């Protein structure tokens, strides 16, 4: 709901000023700033854990998070906030990254938790969740997309830089939706642990993908996808 025409009640147009007033009201509702969205996949974690609390980062995963935090800090940007999935592996990744970005507030949300966003096309043989999972997770992940991925508010004066630490399925789905690609193709992309995906949202609503799953800042022996 950031398109200026969607924010105005066109029925209330002043009869005297007409189009002139409409243009003025539209200008008042237009975004002025660019949003930079950095989507970070959590680091490597213990796959043998029974539940979420047991699926903590591995020693290598903690190294990866340190490297990602160092990379983000080296960009020299003034980050506004870090929003992260409430799952253990994403929370731990956030805590390590945030040490490199002192003063940046952290916000936890259930919306960004891992899940099955939509049935992939083409299907894969090694991963077949129950149909109900797509309905439950899909609605939540779509809500995350609508809640977080949009043009800047008209009141925002300066460009913003935001970090989202979450999961591969969530990031891949968000990228497809943001670029207006068929979301069923989300599983055709692969993301390394601790990777950085950079989306840019312009004031006119256009979205560009600067990087997808970048781990070029990591030594080859530190790169994993599990």
UniProtKB/TrEMBL annotation:
Protein's UniProt keywords contain Hydrolase: yes
The entry's keywords: Hydrolase, Membrane, Mitochondrion, Mitochondrion outer membrane, Necrosis
Q: Name one GO biological process term.
A: programmed cell death
Q: Which reaction does it catalyse?
A: O-phospho-L-threonyl-[protein] + H2O = L-threonyl-[protein] + phosphate; O-phospho-L-seryl-[protein] + H2O = L-seryl-[protein] + phosphate
EC id:
3.1.3.16
SMART domains reported for this sequence: PGAM
Question: Which Pfam families is this protein grouped with?
Answer: His_Phos_1
The keyword Membrane is annotated on this UniProt entry: yes
GO MF terms here are: protein serine/threonine phosphatase activity
Kindly state one GO CC term assigned in the UniProt record: mitochondrial outer membrane
Query: Where in the cell?
Result: Mitochondrion outer membrane
Superkingdom is Eukaryota
Q: What family is this?
A: Belongs to the phosphoglycerate mutase family. BPG-dependent PGAM subfamily.
PANTHER family with a match to the protein in the record? PHOSPHOGLYCERATE MUTASE-RELATED, SERINE_THREONINE-PROTEIN PHOSPHATASE PGAM5, MITOCHONDRIAL
Q: What is this protein called?
A: Serine/threonine-protein phosphatase PGAM5, mitochondrial
> Which organism is the protein's source?
Geococcyx californianus (Greater roadrunner)
Which gene is annotated as encoding this protein in its UniProt record? Pgam5
């Amino acid at each position: 709901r950031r398109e200026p025409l969607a924010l105005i009640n066109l029925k209330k147009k002043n009869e005297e000023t007409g189009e002139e007033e409409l243009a003025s009201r539209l200008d008042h509702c237009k975004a002025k700033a660019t949003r930079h969205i950095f989507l970070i996949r959590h680091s490597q974690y213990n796959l043998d854990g029974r539940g979420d609390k047991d699926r903590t980062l591995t020693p290598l995963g903690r190294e990866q998070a340190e490297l990602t935090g160092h990379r983000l800090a080296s960009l020299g940007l003034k980050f506004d906030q870090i929003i992260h999935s409430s799952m253990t592996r994403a929370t731990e990744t956030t805590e390590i990254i945030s040490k490199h970005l002192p003063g940046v507030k952290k916000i936890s949300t259930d919306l960004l938790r891992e899940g099955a966003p939509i049935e992939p096309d083409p299907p894969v043989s090694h991963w077949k969740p129950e149909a109900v999972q797509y309905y439950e997770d899909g609605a939540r992940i779509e809500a995350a997309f609508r809640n977080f991925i949009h043009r800047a508010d008209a009141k925002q004066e300066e460009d913003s830089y935001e970090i989202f630490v979450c999961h591969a399925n969530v990031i891949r789905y968000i990228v497809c939706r943001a670029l207006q690609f068929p979301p069923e193709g989300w599983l055709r992309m692969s993301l390394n642990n601790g990777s950085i995906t950079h989306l840019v949202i312009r004031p006119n609503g256009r979205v560009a993908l600067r990087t997808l799953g970048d781990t070029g800042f990591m030594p080859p022996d530190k790169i994993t996808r599990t």
